[in-house]
Amino acid sequence: MKRIAVLLCVFILSQLALAGQPELVSASATPETAAPGDTVSFVIEFKGETKDIESVVLTVREYPYDGPRVPLQPKEKESKSVWVAQGPVPYDAPLETYHLEIAAKTADGQEIISKEHKNNTWGKTGVIVLTVK
What we know:
Elements (H helix, E strand, L loop, with lengths): L1 H18 L3 E8 L2 E2 L4 E9 L5 E8 L9 E5 L7 E7 L8 E10 L19 E7 L1
């Protein structure tokens, strides 16, 4: 009986600890299909304790070492629930579909990990798909 009570307490405490963790709500690129030289906007939205988010960076899965890393900035410094970036598609970008892995980190260096993206290599928070035609 004591064992069950202890397990129940541990379960309840773990759920309370996870309740405030930042969580990815949505991530998008506009437009989703672009040509080299076109300007693309990225918007990433979080919920939970978003004030703890320190950085959000996009890494091109297909070219992690050669491709550009895209740092995002919070739309509003106070809430940090929406992060944005805008820039041109490189003129020398090969025409293909890219997966931009999202790596969001808290002030203590912990990456925000989404269940469906936990096996990603470069960003475990989420993925944005962008096609260059």
